[in-house]
Amino acid sequence: MSTLVASERFDSFSGQHWLLLAIFALGMVLVPLWGRSHRGTPRERPARRGYAVVLGIGVLTMQVYYLLEPGGFRLGTSLPLELCDLAEYAAVVALWTGSPRATAFTYYVALTLSIQAILTPSLGQSFPSPRFLGFWALHLLVVWAAAYLTWGLGFRPTWALYRFTCLVLVVWALLVFPLNGALDTDYGYLNRKPASASLLDLLGPWPWYLAAGAVIILVGWALVLTLPWTFLDRSRRREAQSARSTITGA
Questions:
Q1: How many CB atoms sit inside 10 A of residue 148's CB?
Q2: pLDDT tens-digit profile of 166-223?
Q3: CA angle in degrees (0–180, nearest 5) for 12-214-24
Q4: Among 20, 84, 108, 96, which residue's Cα sits nearest to residue 56?
Q5: 237 is in which domain, residue-wise?
Q6: Phi, psi (5° rounding) for residue 80?
Q7: CA 68 → CA 62, 146, 162, 186, 195, distances in Å?
């Protein structure tokens, strides 16, 4: 039992990690089902906004902790400048307002980069460290939020929302890259690779790994997270037109 609960350092694919992955998978099923249960009903808005409040409290609590933790503030990791951090804020806005753009940013980032962080976490602390609890609570909640909004409440990505999210990604990189240089930080690994071995090692040296990573992300967002919905929408439109034609002919 101790291997599932506490250790000095979090290890990927340990018993503790597998337990968290099981919780993550269960939530990916149950949270969208919960959303479908109140989609389009008077309960949808309070449920959606309740989720926003829970996530928002978690985000603000951990940000205050990162900034005020005695001896724990790290200029290179404690500022909310990672894309996953921005997805958490976007998810709060999406859940509270229903904004398509905030929802799209949450959808694209959470279902790729945040999931990657869940599968291969870079985390030095284990249970019950506040950093451990905050990392897992926020990453799980933001990915579940993307699933809730999409498969629960019916959000559908479009090419216009894809282009908007890509533009935000470019703006983020253009702002964070010089900030990294000024602060000697490396948010987003825009300025250098991580010191430890990572998948970025397969993409070549700087700046080529940035270009390769951007292509992988943008193509993946297009082919995996946008194109299937386009086909589905076309199929549904054809079915609707066929149904109308049948009714008119009758």
A1: 29
A2: 999 999 999 999 999 999 999 998 998 776 656 777 788 888 889 999 999 999 999 9
A3: 35
A4: 96
A5: 2-249
A6: -80, 70
A7: 10, 29, 36, 21, 26
The amino acid at residue 225 is L
Structure tokens at 197: 């071995």
Q: Give the confidence band of 74 by pLDDT, cuts at 50, 70, 90.
A: confident
Q: Which two tokens stand for residue 53?
A: 């409040």
Q: Report d(CA 191, CA 172) in Å as an integer.
A: 13
Q: Is 207 helix (H, G, I), strand (E, B) or coil?
A: coil
Contacts of 188 (CB under 8 A, 6+ apart): 81, 82, 83, 172, 173, 176, 180
Could you tell me the pTM of the whole model? 0.88
Name the residue among 227, 194, 200, 196 with its Cα closest to residue 212. Answer: 200
Q: Distance between CA atoms of 137 and 96, rounded to whole angstroms?
A: 19
> How do the residues of the chain divide into helix, strand and coil, expressed in percent and rounded to 5?
75, 0, 25
Residue pair 187/179 in contact by the 8 Å Cβ criterion: yes
Count: domains in the chain? 1
Token pair for 161: 């929302």
CB 146 within 8 A of CB 33: no
